[in-house]
Amino acid sequence: MDVLGVDVGGSSIKAAVIAVDTGRLISKHLHVETPRPATPDAVVETIATLVRSFDWKGPVGCGFPAVMQGGLVKTAANIDSSWLGIDIRDALHRATNCRCFVINDADAAGLAEMMFGAGQGRMGTVLTLTLGTGIGSALFYRGKLFPNLELGSLPLDGAPAESYASAAVRISEKLSWQSWSHRLNRFLRHAERLFSPELIVVGGGISSQHQKFLPLLEMQAELVPAHFFNQAGIIGAACFAATGSHE
């Protein structure tokens, strides 16, 4: 089965057709900038344009940067606040005329890594992270997802952790790899105290440069880069849609 996967991020929206039995991309990988401001109308139209560019009529899986409950957007940390309460699943269906399934973006990336990537076959507690505009997180135990974890919102020094240790902060504050790794390590140690994961999978765009910062981190858990790097969200969103899930 093939599904169009879409990954909505704070800086870009990516899409590709995925063979969900293998997790392979079987089409070109398209990406466009996330609209500014990231309002519902602007984001939905951007996604619809991407769907049309594939001439796609089948199911669509979308990873979205918010807590998702029954298709409703419940948080808006890195998107416009006008998203709150919007039924994105219904909005995408009306804009694309495709059956659409929506999942938290970090949960989507985590599913890809658990099904086909760095977490495959691991039955203990696994924490997957996406480091980008914010800090996305997904927690698994015995292969099952605990949805909408949102560890990037945990407070560190009186502010959300993602405002202190995200990949975007490293660039905006012109931090060295060592200085940024110290911040990331503080966040990871906090998460480790809370959940005691056996494995932490570090993803997001910055994971392709893992050799610059993973060796600087000191954790009890095994720490590995994501297998799919920044494509995990597309793959996981498509796989989520293939299950026919409505949550």
Structure in words:
This protein has 247 residues and is of the alpha/beta class. The protein has two domains: 2-104 and 233-242, 2-Layer Sandwich (Nucleotidyltransferase, domain 5); 108-231, ATPase, nucleotide binding domain (Nucleotidyltransferase, domain 5), CATH 3.30.420.40. It is 30% helix and 26% strand. The strands form four sheets. Strands 1, 2, 3, 4, 5 and 8 form a six-stranded mixed β-sheet that branches. Helix 1 packs across helix 2 (88-96).
CATH class of the largest domain: Alpha Beta
CATH architecture identity of the largest domain:
2-Layer Sandwich
Strand-residue fraction? Answer: 25-35%
Number of strands: 15
The whole-angstrom Rg is 17 Å
Largest sheet: 6 strands, mixed
Q: CATH topology of the largest domain, which one?
A: Nucleotidyltransferase, domain 5
The assigned structural class equals alpha/beta
Q: How many H/I helices? A: 7
On the 0 to 100 scale, the average pLDDT is 95
Helical content stands at 25-40%
Broad shape: globular
* Measured distance between first and last alpha carbons: 20 Å
CATH superfamily of the largest domain: ATPase, nucleotide binding domain
Number of separate structural domains:
2
SSE order:
EEEEHEEEHEHEEEEEHHHEEH
- Model regions low in confidence, pLDDT < 50 over at least 5 residues: none
